[in-house]
Amino acid sequence: MQLLEQLIAVRGASGDESKVTRFILDQIKSELPNYKVQPTILCGDGFQDAIILVFGKPTTAIFAHIDSIGFTVGYNNNLIKIGGPRTIDGMELVGSDSQGEIETELMIIEQENGTNFLQCVSDRTIDRGTNLTFKPNFRQTEDFIKSPYMDNRLGVWVALEVASTLENGAIVFSTYEEHGGGSVGFLGRYLYDHYQIRQALIADITWVTDGVTHGKGVAISMRDIGIPRRSYLNRIIEIAQKNHIAFQLEVESAGGSDGTALQKSDLPFDWCFIGAPEDNVHSPDETVHKYDLAAMVSLYKVLMTEL
Prior knowledge:
- The chain contains 7 helices and 19 strands.
- By secondary structure, the protein is α+β, with helices and mostly antiparallel strands.
- It folds into 2 domains: 2-68 and 139-306, 3-Layer(aba) Sandwich (Aminopeptidase); 78-134, CATH 2.40.30.40.
- An 8-stranded mixed sheet has the order 1-2-12-3-13-17-15-16, sandwiched between helices. A 6-stranded antiparallel sheet has the order 5-4-9-6-7-8, with no helix packed on it.
- The chain is globular and about 55 Å long.
């Protein structure tokens, strides 16, 4: 869990992922001697802040987005949402600008016309365009982990766990997912053109709902706003059943992911969202059960071998 806690502490709101990219690259390079297969590392020019790892002869790619929700400071310390963060009066936010480090709180200001606007509490004017994110606060018990940005640092953590044993496959650390996509199209195109990869698994975190609960295994999403191809989905379910990995089937009408971006592209990718469910979505108190996280790691390792 130490690596997960370190990942969560790195600031990386959508569009400002470079620090997370550097952290992931440093982690990969430090662990390379322990990898079963040495991957080709693709990043830098032409990849923006995204990373692709290619192992052996890949047929399937894991996509895990590295960005997070947050806020941009506008005029007069007003705040503009990045993605869909929850807004609760007094939320602790952090960032940095030309004048130094920032620790502040979110303030919801009610107007006479019944609308609200967001502002940060500060005794100085913060540089406009500064990104603020939830203050790190990693907590765990015997069964649960609670922290901001489990979505999607947990998906990144799972992908790094899989990387150490992966023989054939690709891992994609994508950007911009929380604010409408932006990198998945060209990353998918690269994998398709250079490696003929047409299968994707989306390592992300989903929601606890009436049908998906804590402690019953990883969620395999049968649909959200996007709909994966049923024959591909059925193969994934059969592999999970055969290997006795605990899972829950999710059926939702809303929500999206890197899989949605792949489906909207012109690429013939099969995809499926597979992730542990969390409570308190997009807040500083996102909560995941360790049993579901363990099932998520196990399923990804098996799928990257058997799909």
